[in-house]
Protein: 3-oxo-tetronate 4-phosphate decarboxylase
Amino acid sequence: MTAPHEINAARELIARTGETLYNRQLAHGSAGNLSIRLDDGTLLLTPTNSSLGYLDPARLSHLASDGRLLDGDPPSKEAFFHLAVYDERPTAQAVVHLHSTHCVAVSCLCHETTDDVLPPLTAYHVMRVGRLPLVPYFRPGDQALAGAVRKVAKDHHAMLLANHGPIVAGKSLRDAAWTYEELEETAKLFFLLGDRKTSPLDAAQIAEINRAFPS
Structure:
């Protein structure tokens, strides 16, 4: 069982991180959700209909590993895909899901292939994000999305939900949030460059980065 002081520290961390992401305009209104997996396998998750900029640590949803509410407010309706990511990625300790402008814009485009929908424009995108697969569209709250997320999460810590936004898992909440920020910056570069001829990193350069900075 996770000690109460550790749970309280995780609650405070989620609230501080949510406020930071909100103030950086990566989250808006009541969109998006954050979670941390505790040492005992239970989860802390942002509640339904809550703004990441104004979270009350004491009211965060505390869930069992099967999704049962242990205490706190009812969880986000998207709790099921957090659970799916954790099931497929045993090393993941946090999940960030936001609706940031440029990432959502990428999710609305038509893509010739869906296995990697952003070019490797920078070494930092390769290091932090890697390949970014596109998951087919499901309406918000559709439990069928869990199966689609599971298929992708086993091999990818970041994915993009069509017409929705990214899911990013990390070894800590800070790690997941920083990866999300790198992803949004790459999406922003993608649109700034537009139709101009670009020189994304090639396979040899990507392989060198992966050897130097193994995940």
